[in-house]
Design goal:
Layout (H helix, E strand, L loop, with lengths): L3 H23 L9 H28 L12 H29 L16 H4 L7 H25 L1 H11 L14 H18 L3 H18 L8 H4 L6 H7 L21 H5 L17 H4 L6 H16 L10 E3 L5 E3 L18 E4 L4 E4 L5
Antiparallel strand pairs: 1-2, 3-4
Helix pairs in contact: 1-2, 2-3, 2-8, 5-6, 5-7, 6-13
């Protein structure tokens, strides 16, 4: 009988010995940290993720587009960055940082599969040891709850928004947009989520699958599609229509409308904590702040440099630590949006010609050319 777990383990072992270890030898990184099998597993998970994005989510954008673009030029940098992150940076980051961090702070023991954390779920509820799928589900609910509050914080703290705004700056949100983000922002997120995982007793293999599940759902929710889950399920799970409203351009007449829909997988957190938004027509995506919108003029290196300049300008001043929504002024100093006339954010630079198709609500609406 075909055993998927044995096939996976064999694939990890083969890739590790035939590709990862020789590559680490060339870079003189062998034995520096972690287990080469961690890189091999990350690469296989990444390949699976890229395949699902490219062969499933991307066609959906052709069949059920939310926006019809004249070209997909602005999605190319996101696609290239996704490939770089998933097939290069994140596997090495796992090997050099996450796994050693787990071991340093008492992560799962490879020989006993037990955890040193006194707050591990299996420590308090041994029943979970006999029901691994239920345990994984509980892990994920906790993981997603933490992600929701972390995401809200990314938008609330100006210096963190300076980094996270790189993710929101794209005018062409697509299946490749999820991984568009500052490396510094990604490092902070990964370390926070890893700490939570260690505390509740998630072992490295389970953490990798938690990450994959969350990333795949986010790849789907970022697709340029008008897909929704219906009036019942959209209150529980994040769908592309729901998440698109989180990325919408600011409405000067309703300036807080876009502060919504922070959930990663479960929209129930937005419902429970009053940040959910439903019933709005699909809108063009991006940011109004011209300083952040200028990200669209850069490639991979330029994107990160621009985000770092915003971060450095914000983290050095008291305004950068005061929770509120901001734009960036001279010297990248945060300016409270409440002090600005948001109409100045309109029509600053041309956006790609697009048609926003709202399925079943308002028909078609032509997107504005916005900064």
């Amino acid at each position: 009988m075909f055993d998927l777990s044995q096939w996976w383990a064999h694939g990890v072992s083969w890739l590790s010995s035939h590709a990862v270890v020789p590559f680490l030898d060339v870079l003189h990184l062998d034995g520096l940290a972690g287990d080469p099998d961690d890189i091999a597993a990350s690469l296989m998970i990444a390949a699976l993720q890229v395949g699902i994005i490219g062969f499933l989510f991307r066609p959906l954008e052709t069949w059920f587009p939310a926006e019809k673009w004249a070209d997909r030029r602005l999605t190319l940098v996101d696609r290239n960055y996704t490939l770089l992150m998933l097939l290069g940076i994140f596997p090495l980051f796992t090997y050099l940082v996450l796994t050693p961090f787990s071991h340093l702070f008492g992560g799962a023991d490879s020989t006993t599969s037990s955890t040193g954390s006194p707050l591990a779920l299996t420590h308090w509820v041994p029943w979970f040891n006999q029901h691994p799928f239920v345990l994984f589900g509980v892990y994920y609910v906790i993981y997603d709850f933490v992600y929701y509050w972390m995401h809200r914080t990314q938008h609330a703290i100006p210096w963190w928004w300076a980094l996270h705004s790189m993710h929101h700056s794209t005018r062409q949100m697509s299946c490749w947009t999820n991984d568009r983000g500052s490396l510094v922002d990604g490092f902070i997120q990964s370390m926070l989520l890893a700490v939570v995982g260690l505390v509740i007793g998630v072992d490295p293999d389970e953490f990798a699958w938690l990450m994959l599940l969350g990333e795949l759902v986010q790849n789907f929710s970022h697709t340029n599609t008008r897909i929704g889950f219906g009036r019942v399920f959209e209150r529980v799970f994040v769908d592309p229509k729901f998440h698109r409203l989180h990325h919408m351009l600011v409405d000067p007449e309703r300036p807080t409308l876009h502060n919504c829909n922070y959930g990663q997988v479960f929209s129930i957190w937005d419902v429970l904590f009053g940040t959910s938004l439903y019933g709005e027509p699909l809108r063009p995506t991006g940011v109004g702040d011209p300083v952040v919108d200028a990200d669209n003029d850069h490639g991979l290196v330029g994107l990160h440099w621009a985000a770092l300049k915003r971060f450095w300008g914000a983290v050095r001043c008291i305004e950068g630590w005061t929770p509120r929504e901001v734009a960036f002024g001279e010297g990248y100093r945060p300016i409270p949006v409440s002090q600005l006339d948001l109409h100045i954010f309109e029509h600053k630079s041309p956006a790609p010609v697009a048609t926003v198709a709202d399925a079943g609500q308002t028909g078609n609406a032509t997107s504005a050319e916005v900064a």
